[in-house]
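Sequence only, no structure available. Ideas?
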Amino acid sequence: MARWLVALDMDSTFIQQEVIDMLAAQAGVEAEVAAVTERAMQGEIDFSESLALRVSKLAGLTAEDIAAVQNMLTLSPGAKELVENLHKRGHLVAIFSGGFLNVIEPLLTSLKVDFFTANTLEVVDGALTGRTLGPIIDAQAKADHLEKFAESQGISIENTIAVGDGANDVLMMERAGIGVAYNGKPKAISAADYSFTNESLVRILQLIPG
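Reply:
I predicted one. Tokens follow.
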């Protein structure tokens, strides 16, 4: 039986929240950051530009603030079961996120997600600087990571499923063998082969033959 790769977005897909909005709440700038997040999700402004703008407002947050957000993360229905069932069947699961490794890495490591990548918040003297480090994980990066990771594992791109909810996931969904919008915004839904709303992520298993 062929191996498959299921790649998911993190925020509002694998988990129920938007991490950047949670960090913004810790910094007391939730409303202004949420407004920029929504515009980026709808594809009204460039993701990299919106990310820089939002991250700049997080300057001064501490390790304690990040830990507080980590403790509030809530998996979407069926997320843990999806990972477990994919592994039982010999398939792989990846997370390609425009969010932040600083926040999501412990959770993904504990769930034994096979591969994940996200943006890195710069920390100096124990506090966020309001900048990110390294290349930005935007729509193009997600699509490229999907292709590269599948290839590195000997998995045909036809045997990949990409799951996301916003404009930043469209390229990844179009590149994959199957694109799934999960609680999707209009741009994600129009790019998807399948669209699920408020259902268990375990339903994705039905898309894998056998």
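The first helix runs from residue 10 to 14.
Hope that gets you unstuck.
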